[in-house]
Amino acid sequence: MNQQINGLVLPPRIHYRRVAASAAPGTTTTTKSSKFDYDLYVKTKREAVSISLHRAFPPPLKQPETLKMHDAMRYAVGGGRRTCPIACIAACELVGGTQDDAMPGACALEMIKASFCVQDDLPSIDDSELRHGKPTVHRAFGIPTALFAGTALLALGFEHLAARYSGDTAARMVAEVGRAIGSTGLLAGQAVDLGIENPDRGVELETLEFVHLHKTSALLEASLVAGAIAGGASEQEIEALRAYGRVTGLLYQIVDDVADATKTMEELGKIPGQDAMAGKSTYSTILGVDKSREMVGQLLVEAKERLGVFEETKALPLIHLADHFANWA
């Protein structure tokens, strides 16, 4: 039987080896482990991804315009938390694979994610001036170059998947990522999100969840599944990671909405309150900050339960990832 948390429909539960402790309303929980340093784990993986990304770019052609486009592509992937590639690697290692197995997929996903960030920031969509504390790509290079760079990153991401994997693994990963970003995935969420910006339209929580399950959760889910495929996961393991990705992606987006209403520009790396200024509905405007934080606590428990098919010590990177998101609220 499907389970619902404030409108989020989750797949039927499967048998768990471990059941997470319940969180009190309005609180989050933190996994304690003296043997696992999450900050060091993230730092190490982030550095490895950055090195591999640098090597993954083809040399530019000699024409000045193409040099500018390549500079914009590298600029677009030059910052950020590397959440999708780190999740990809963590999922691969969780099911018995290695960082090397996951790295091509991790780099491809960061390219693809960056391509959509470039698109999101454009004046015709979010009209953002800053991302990760620096000018957005169209502010730094101009709109035409930003459009070219974003499209090129999307193409390069799929080229990297197809070239670095083979056979059924390549086919499954390309199909998974393509579905996640296509007209029934990220772009569906983007289309509905534009409608939410209409101040005359009343937005229900169900609509907001549709947007974020498709815009945010879909790409995190695809990152986890791609890593699991690269590591040779079973179908049960893939579905557990898929469910974890859906829940954690939504959790992250609610936290992001709360942070946009409560954090400073220095903390966010972007101008806060832009959604409110645009008349856009968010979790914090519909539910309020306190209720939104309560929902984060519920989703955090659910995310950890979805990892219950794995040994807890092996799942610590992903457990801590969800904790990290939740504690930002």
List the helices and strands and how they pair.
Blueprint: E1 3-5, E2 8-10, H1 38-56, H2 64-76, H3 83-94, H4 99-121, E3 130-131, E4 134-135, H5 137-141, H6 143-164, H7 167-181, H8 186-196, H9 205-230, H10 235-262, H11 265-268, H12 274-277, H13 283-286, H14 289-306, H15 312-328
Antiparallel strand pairs: 1-2, 3-4
Helix pairs in contact: 1-4, 2-6, 3-4, 3-9, 3-15, 4-6, 4-9, 6-7, 7-9, 8-9, 9-10, 10-14, 10-15, 14-15
Shape: globular
Give me the Rg, rounded. 19 Å
Structural class: mainly alpha
**Distance N to C terminus:** 31 Å
Strand content: under 5%
Largest pleated sheet? 2 strands, antiparallel
Fold and architecture overview:
The structure is a single chain. It is globular, with a radius of gyration of 19 Å. The chain has helices at 38-56, 64-76, 83-94, 99-121, 137-141, 143-164, 167-181, 186-196, 205-230, 235-262, 265-268, 274-277, 283-286, 289-306, 312-328, and strands at residues 3-5, 8-10, 130-131, 134-135. Residues 1-30 have low confidence and may be disordered. β3 (130-131) and β4 (134-135) form a beta hairpin. With 329 residues, it is mostly helical. It is 67% helix and 3% strand. The strands form two sheets. A two-stranded antiparallel sheet has the order 1-2. Strands 3-4 form a two-stranded antiparallel sheet. The longest helix is centred in the last third of the chain and has 28 residues, at 235-262. The protein has 15 helices and four strands.
Keywords:
329 residues; mainly alpha; two-stranded antiparallel sheet; 4 strands; globular
Task: Write a concise synopsis of the structure shown.
With 329 residues, the chain is mainly alpha-helical.
